[in-house]
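Throughout our pipeline, every protein is held as a single compact record rather than as scattered files. This encoding replaces a full spatial description with a residue-level series of whole-number codes. The remainder of this section carries one protein's record, kept here as part of the documentation.
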Amino acid sequence: MALNISSELFNLYGFYASILLLKLSTNFILTVRARITQKVFPNEEDAKKYKGKVDFNNDDVERTRRIHLNDMENIIPFLFLAFLYIGTNPGSTCAKYHFLVFTLCRFVHTVCYYFSLPRIAFIPAVLVNVSMAVQCIIYFM
């Protein structure tokens, strides 16, 4: 079976994948900010440079690291599922809403996590992944 992906679907995928990868690759900024403002670092040379201390258990730094880890745990599977999903030739509107909902949920989840707010935005994002996975399983079965 050959994949026949329309350029419109691939463009949608490329757009949302790029946004999510940019988010994932810039999460370190939150961690750097937390380390500098809290003056806690993972090594002696940075601690000396910024007049701080070595500490691996600072709550603020760990919160930003968990945000990054959580994004990796969710965005990477999404990228694979979404790529397979566009291979099923879904309607472009349906694909757009799957991608849009997931992307918005990841940003909302990050803000909620950062400010210690209830994090219910992960539920729709998980449902998007489940929806795409089920559709892929059925299509490729």
Q: What stands out?
A: The chain has six helices and two strands. The first helix runs from residue 7 to 26. Helices lie at 7-26, 28-38, 44-49, 59-86, 92-114, 122-140.
